């Protein structure tokens, strides 16, 4: 079985967004500090913009690449995985605070 290849930029963006968001989420759940909630909101907005820019770059790279190397396409799917993770964290926060 072949190992799935990802582009470096897409993989690093995904991991940075996921780990930073998870750290903020867990920190808020543990401490319930309101400033973490506000910081998390700004983080989601900034991370969404950065992820969208990288996603568009990877998608353009995937569509214009004529070789059989499809690491950019795999990175697009990896970056899209951040969306349901963020929605899950938001749903947990909404239910947690009610």
TrEMBL record:
Keywords: Membrane, Transmembrane, Transmembrane helix
Keyword Transmembrane helix: yes
Transmembrane spans: 12-30, 36-56, 76-96
Protein name: Uncharacterized protein
């Amino acid at each position: 079985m072949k190992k799935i290849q990802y582009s470096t930029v897409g993989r690093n963006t995904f991991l940075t967004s996921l780990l930073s968001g998870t750290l903020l989420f867990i920190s808020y759940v543990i401490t319930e500090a309101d400033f973490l909630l506000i910081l998390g909101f700004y983080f989601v907005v900034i991370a969404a913009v950065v992820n969208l820019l990288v996603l568009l770059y990877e998608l353009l790279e995937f569509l214009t690449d004529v070789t059989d190397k499809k690491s950019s396409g795999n990175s697009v799917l990896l970056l899209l995985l951040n969306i349901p993770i963020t929605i899950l964290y938001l749903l947990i926060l909404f239910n947690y605070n009610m």
